[in-house]
Design brief:
Length: about 400
């Protein structure tokens, strides 16, 4: 095949690159739902790239700068290529395109070595299906506004061509700050950008994971218009602690573990809200319990309360068994929530969570003051105990 006049990418592919698909079609097509045809067909099952975490369509993945999002994203990308469990089951190996707009060649190389060591694979195992482009120092704007009107750059056409020439099933875009040049608070700009990102697969199933940063204000999970969340199928968030579980400023609590992160599903159209605890080991954030056991945990408000209640009840049982006194008194050295935290039994729950759980259980009559043993002088030692509730007839 003649290679004269071909680009380096075309030579590597061994064929010419397809012309970029126009961002705005020249001819509008009508394609309504054909209900009569569909009536006799079986409904296709929903496709999961990562069970309960990733489907075709756009996913937003924000988190504070420097917290390790790119490392986690690169690890997820490798798991997708290998078909190996991470966060949850990955049904089959996939092809992944990764635009790393804030990392250089050698940093991606070093990071990938640790990731491959974690998965027990070699560079050869990922060479054909993990396409990573280090784009630090390059122009990365895909979308901008001209006199208020949203516009696509020529680079968008290149990204779309790469997605389809490589046959990528999943594309990572790191990050929105580099690629989105519109107004982040302008709903139409945001929606148009994310719609274009969702359409990169040119009519075939394709997943887009766009990394992002939150706003400056405390508690923010992404920056700009609510359209960022409304225009995606999933939104994840990565932080030092679970969202919605901040420590009460009036309460003391454990310091953040610098090696621990939480990745949470904060918006999900097709499944429950989950989270996964990650711990940094040997250059990789490893899911809690490792990948040999399920790691996704329910994160709905009701289930979060149930989980906190369970932590408190199990702690009370353990303390009572060992004749360790606990109490509801805030000023007591035996204050139950403080003791749970001091004994490393909180399982990621904040002191506020434990206080709320203790109060719920007390009101429900599931815990009470009781005898847990005797002092050396043989007088009864009292403390909080679980109340065994008999079945109602």
């Amino acid at each position: 095949m003649a290679t004269e006049g071909m680009s380096d990418l075309e030579r590597r592919l061994g064929r010419p690159i397809a012309a970029p698909v126009a961002a705005i079609p020249a001819v509008f097509e009508r394609n309504p739902m054909r209900w009569r045809d569909l009536a006799s067909q079986a409904i296709p099952e929903r496709e999961w790239r990562i069970k309960h975490w990733l489907t075709p369509g756009a996913t937003l993945f924000p988190g504070l700068g420097g917290i390790g999002k790119t490392l986690v994203a690169q690890t997820i990308a490798t798991a997708l290529v290998l078909g190996r469990r991470y966060l949850d089951d990955i049904p089959k190996p996939l092809k992944v395109l990764f635009w790393a707009c804030e990392d250089d060649h050698d940093e991606l190389w070093r990071r990938q070595l640790d990731i491959c060591n974690y998965f027990g694979c070699t560079f050869e195992d990922i060479a054909d299906n993990l396409i990573m482009e280090p784009r630090i120092g390059l122009e990365n704007t895909l979308f901008y506004a001209e006199y208020g009107a949203p516009k696509w750059t020529r680079l968008y056409g290149e990204l779309q061509a790469q997605v389809n020439d490589y046959g990528a099933d999943v594309t990572f875009l790191d990050n929105i700050g580099q690629t989105f040049g519109g107004k982040e608070n302008e709903r139409h700009h945001v929606t148009a950008f994310m719609n274009g990102m969702a359409g990169l697969g040119a009519g075939r199933p394709h997943s887009l994971i766009a990394l992002a940063h939150p706003a400056k204000q405390s508690g923010s999970e992404y920056s700009g218009s609510t359209a960022w969340e409304n225009s995606v199928r999933m939104r994840w968030y990565m932080g030092m602690k679970l969202p919605d579980q901040p420590l009460d400023e009036s309460e003391e609590g454990p310091e953040d573990d610098p090696n621990v992160r939480y990745i949470s599903k904060r918006k999900t159209n097709y499944t429950i809200k989950d989270y996964c605890k990650l711990t940094y080991r040997n250059g990789v954030f490893v899911p809690d319990g490792d990948i040999a056991r399920p790691v996704a945990q329910r994160y709905t408000f009701g289930n979060a309360n149930e989980a906190a209640d369970d932590v408190v009840l199990k702690a009370i049982d353990r303390f009572a068994l060992n004749q360790i006194r606990t109490t509801e008194g805030k000023t007591s050295p035996d204050y139950l929530p403080r003791k749970i935290i001091d004994m490393k039994l909180a399982q990621g729950h904040s002191k506020r969570d434990l206080i709320d759980a203790m109060n719920r259980l007390r009101i429900a009559g599931r815990i009470a003051e009781g005898v847990i043993g005797k002092y050396p002088n043989r007088t009864p030692k009292t403390g909080l105990i679980r109340v065994i509730q008999s079945a109602q007839t």
